[in-house]
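Shipment paperwork, digital attachment
Item: protein structure file
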Amino acid sequence: MKAQLDVIGMVVEDMGRSLAFYRLLGLEVPPEANGQPHVEAVLPGGLRLAWDTVETIRSFHPDWRPGNGQGISLAFRFDTPAEVDEAYRQLVLLGYEGDKEPWDAFWGQRYAVIHDPDGNGVDLFAPSAES
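Attachment content:
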């Protein structure tokens, strides 16, 4: 069997709130998508990121319940460590929950973790200045 990863999907409580967060990280999603039950953004390279509301999922899976634990996270690359620090600072100032403040990871990256509006971990990273 051979398959190609094509879509990463997330279930969200509030589409507009979730899309606002990801727009801050540079994803291009039109404003009219805020009220839609399913939204997709095509990423560089063709991979798609998709959002579905809880109601959309329950329309075909009525007993669906969110998981209890973080099974997936998204990672956004920045060009410099300073950009990671600034993005984290701005997102926290806007009220998003910071999980791990920026640090210099042993694997050679400046790294931080913030939560999106639905509690999903979103990693922010850049090559370390020494890399």
